[in-house]
Amino acid sequence: MSVLDKLIAVSLPIVPKPIVRVFAGPYIAGETLDDQIRVIEKLNGEGLMVASSILGELVTRREESEEAVRDYKNALDAIHARKLDSNIHIKPTHLGLKLDKEFCYDNICTILEHAKSKGNFVRMDMEDSPTIDDTLDLYFRVKQDFDNFGCVIQARMRRSLEDVRRLAKARANVRLCKGVYLEPRERAYTDPRIIQDNYAMLLQELLSAGCYVGIATHDEVLIWNAYRLIDKLGLERHQYEFQMLHGVERELRGIIRDAGHRLRVAVPYGPSWYPYSVRRLRKNPAIAGYVLKAMFK
Ligand SMILES: Cc1cc2nc3c(=O)[nH]c(=O)nc-3n(C[C@H](O)[C@H](O)[C@H](O)COP(=O)(O)OP(=O)(O)OC[C@H]3O[C@@H](n4cnc5c(N)ncnc54)[C@H](O)[C@@H]3O)c2cc1C
């Protein structure tokens, strides 16, 4: 962590809300479903697919998860009614993973049932390392009843090759990312070059096994490597997709789309943007550096 990153992390609690909003601004659609729908329509109009999510994590009351389930159902209804090209992604700790695993399982199944009735797809995000075992257990359990369900693997984690081999056997639909949480060295690679190489290796395992992969990265070296693999394996464009975060590397996403690949933009919304952004920036202050760089660009 650089000195600037450390400074950002310790000073966050005293940073006024409007300034945190500046950092969060490029990444979120707004506070309401209407804001989200406007952004989906715009991105769809540019030939991009969307992954919608509602901001929230680590809830401490069941009512918060129940509200999230209602909000996700409303979002799925709105997407369906307007014939928009957006699936959704959910966070296990938003749906009660830390409160009660059975409760979380039921919430996920309720959302999946609703998504299935609307012909839509749900992906479950991967959060920090203490939640990985439970998240993958939930994934394999829910997947027995729902084929419209995907998960996420983080290339940063030392365990990911083993997890990927299990998922490859199950022909899972996997989003591959580097991993946003800064993890202890005994669990995660910390050298960026190793994370890159691990990403490339995991992608090869998944694509070679015939898994549908959401290639989620803004790292052009990894995107180049994905192009190489797609070409080598002779994949059709419906067998994978690229994924990026809203507000990040717009130029690169246009380049990928114009090269004929499908690209999905992850767009979160909801009133909980402030606690979410503060936790994110505190966990990984490098994000603030990215935003500053992008603003000056
Ligand atoms: C669609 C999607 C879903 C994701 N889901 C998860 C998940 O479920 N679990 C999880 O742990 N992580 C998730 N992530 C985050 C991911 O793990 C990385 O933290 C993030 O994508 C940055 O890694 P990178 O591969 O882009 O490489 P980096 O080397 O981190 O970034 C490459 C370049 O992209 C730009 N960039 C990257 N991130 C940002 C940013 N936030 N703001 C501005 N510029 C930026 C910078 O120019 C940077 O130099 C997701 C990412 C995407 C795109």
Q: Short description, anyone?
A:
The protein is built from twelve helices and eight strands.
Query: Would you tell me which CATH topology of the largest domain applies?
Result: TIM Barrel
Distance between the termini: 22 Å
Helix content: 40-55%
Low-pLDDT residue intervals, each spanning 5 or more residues: none
What sort of overall outline do the alpha carbons produce when their principal axes are compared?
globular
Helical segment count: 12
The CATH architecture category of the largest domain equals: Alpha-Beta Barrel
Number of domains: 2
The hetero molecules present are: flavin-adenine dinucleotide
> How do the SSEs run, as a string of H and E?
HHHEHEHEHEHEHEHEHEHH
* Biggest sheet features: 8 strands, parallel, barrel
Q: How would you explain this protein's 3D organization?
A:
With 297 residues, the protein is of the alpha/beta class. The protein folds into 2 domains: 1-28 and 271-297, no CATH class; 30-269, TIM Barrel (Alpha-Beta Barrel), CATH 3.20.20. It is built from 12 helices and 8 strands. The protein has an 8-stranded parallel beta barrel, surrounded by 7 helices. The chain is globular, with a radius of gyration of 18 Å. The two termini are 22 Å apart. The relative contact order is 0.16. Flavin-adenine dinucleotide binds at residues 125-126, 152, 154, 175, 177-181, 216-219, 243-245, 248-249, 266, 287, 290-291, 294.
